[in-house]
Amino acid sequence: MEKNFFYTIDRVIYKDLDYAKYIEVIGWCYSKEDKPVTYSAKLNNQNVSIDVAKVHRQDVYKDRKVDLKSDIVGFRIKVDCTDVDVDSFELNVKDELNKEQLLLVNKKKIQKVRNTEEIEFNLDSIAKDFNKGIITVQGWVYSENGKPVSIDILDENENSIEYKIRSFARTDLVQYHLVKPDNKNCGFQIRFEGDPEKKFYLRFKSENDSQKATIDESSNTTRGLIKSYVKHLNKRSIHNAIDYLRKNGVKKFIQRFKQGVNVDEYQNWFLKQRVTAEELAKQAKVQFEYSPKISIAVATFNTKEEYLKEMIDTVVHQSYSNWELCIADGSTTDDVEKYIKAHYANYGDKIKFKRLDQNYGISGNTNKAMEMADGDYLAVYDHDDVLELDCFYEVVKALQDFRYETLYTDEDKLNDQYKVFIEPNLKPDYSEDLMRSHNYITHIFFVNRRIYEQVGGYRSEYDGSQDYDYIFRCIEKANGVYHIPRVLYHWRMHPQSTAMDPESKLYCYTAGQKAIESHYERIGLKGAKVELLPKPYYGFYHTIYSTEPNPLVSILIPNYNQKDTLKTCIDSLYNVNSYKNFEIVIVENNSTEKDIFEYYEQLKQEHDNVTIVTYEGSFNYSKINNFGVQYTKGDYVLFLNNDTEVIESTAIAEMLGCCMRKEVGAVGAKLLYEDDTIQHAGVVVGFNGYAAHVFNGIDRDDPGFLMRPRVNCNYSACTAACLMVKKSVFEEVNGFDEQFVVACNDIDLCLKIRDKDYLIVYNAFALWHHYESKSRGYEDTPEKQARFESEVKKFQAKWPEILKKGDPYYNKNWNLKSAPFTLD
């Protein structure tokens, strides 16, 4: 019998509790004709409603991509069985023409898959620091009835031991129906002291259930992560995951798995959101009030016929019709000229072609093409790349309300060998510091004719990074820079392109360094030193800004008890930090331990730049810091938690150099947990209706998404655990908002600074440890969690606009309900 559907059932369970009964089926299925499919179910031969979560299955797609257009062939199906004695269960699938039974189980088989556990949990990762005797466990747990689940850490004799816990939301699990929305705050990170060689256990207890898990890196715990995310969710290719696991080990596999763009899904995501033929037809009929002429300049050089055709076709088939294509050909033969005349003669003056008398090089040839253009906006287009057919339409649409003089779009790479789109560069809105760290704008960049005529074209002395130099010069003169958050340009990867082999043209990167230095000279920024990052990070740069005349930095540290913790912080400021013009103001807040007051006296005797002031009110982070600022003498205030420690000697100088720039209001640092994974490398507003640290938990040297945690860039906010602020700006925005007692205060402060048009800079080279929350503890009780939720609601009421429109430094295509840098 011929099969109309292909499928596999991976798992069936029958959850049987007093208050919750359901059947859950996990698997994948697609029709032979790759038509849309729908599912239905029967209980005891009666039709019932079902809950279906569609799941990406790259493992299936990889094996069967000849048959499939998409990898969304997986499913998680739940069928409620409340008040039903289940004698039989049937699951069916159908498409437009056919129907088939996927599963049929009788009462005996249902009892075999019966599950009566109330608690659901998973341990995602276990990290053991053998040097310091610290064990960290991360995972999630919840009870089916929504009631609290208590957690105990037990030693090998089953005695309870002390630990610190931090709770957080796991919206990624909600998305795939692993966790109910009401249980989204089920994530946890636990740290405790213990001998890593010994056995420890996690005990979860609810009203009616108790379960115990072994904290052992070699146990099923780590494999549970792979099972939970790869087998069931299959958000990445299993083959790629296993390969990465084999090469890099479990710890880095887990870190990589939790962070970064989902490359394997990108092709499907892009094709799904790509403009359709029907939409292009509608766009072609739109009459814009402002209809500028778009000029596209291309320098061809012995271009392959296949590439030439695709390049030209993606211009002539644009849905917006007021364009011209200007081609300057420096080829050694007349093949390009013959091809264009033979195939595009009917386009008349819309395609301008000039055969050059010699090869003037990449900049010279491109300039010849630009000189042919007479449009209102001009863009340079590489001769082997590809445009989306709605590119010009989206540009002109963006110009209707305001005539931005420079615009850019998102882009990706087209793998020429496999003809697939990969490596999306989903960009933020204009980020000055990111632009100074690498040319993230690149393609495609549109410039108003007025700006082009002012700055001129490409400069041959910057060949290899001529576009980097050109973009800097244009932006310096423009009335604004507009970002269109759509992938409208595809950079072709083939053996001759720098996209395929970054090391093939090293001169490009030294030219980029020179482009940044020239930018600084033109804007009058003196003393800045530009370093090219080493292999394998070619094309990325580190600017060390001058701190002259080395102003006083006031380091403000609130403190409560914790003498050893504070001493670690203070010692690093004197012994590791190389910037010496600083003062320390410690705000004492209700300490009770004798040794801390003895330490204060010791500090004052040993150092003449330490001041101790006393805040006697109850703990309010905002009030304490506002109080402390009154006692600072410097023009720059470094808000610093007592549980921090300088790692890089230049950390304060790095932050100060950035903060001294007139356009900058505040500078954040790169903070590491004790195990050298990232605690903070920038904050994005919008996650879970509030904000999130986007690179939390990855390795200190992990490049993350497009090197963001490794280079300086701009964010809407940085944590005040280590935040340098211009004192004048702090006063201009009236300091911390004191309605935010514990949470939200630093994000609110940064948004107030942004509201005054100052930049927030994340400095990736200002490296510190942050032994988080040692003094005040985690949000580990219902009371603390309720307080946190209350402050988040205040934040939402105060900042509805950014929560509605989205964080400008985080591309709108990323999913705010899932892990950072995950596609919608």
Annotation field: number of helices: 23
Q: Which class of secondary structure composition applies to the elements?
A: alpha+beta
Low-confidence stretches: 218-263
Q: Report the principal-axis shape.
A: flat
> Helix fraction?
25-40%
Tell me the radius of gyration: 30 Å
Strand content: 25-35%
The average pLDDT score comes to 89
Number of strands: 40
Whole-Å distance between the termini? 39 Å
Major sheet attributes: 10 strands, mixed
Describe what this molecule looks like in 3D.
The structure is a single chain. The protein has 824 residues and is of the alpha+beta class. Helix content is 29%, strand content 29%. The protein contains 23 helices and 40 strands. Strands 29, 30, 31, 32, 33, 34, 35, 38, 39 and 40 form a 10-stranded mixed β-sheet that branches. Strands 18, 19, 20, 21, 22, 23, 24, 25 and 26 form a 9-stranded mixed β-sheet that branches. Helix 14 (466-477) runs parallel beside helix 15 (507-523). It is flat. The two termini are 39 Å apart. The model is unreliable at 218-263 (pLDDT under 50).
Keyword list:
824 residues, alpha+beta
Quick recap:
The protein is α+β, with helices and mostly antiparallel strands and 824 residues long. The chain is 29% helix and 29% strand. A hairpin with a 5-residue loop joins strand 12 and strand 13.
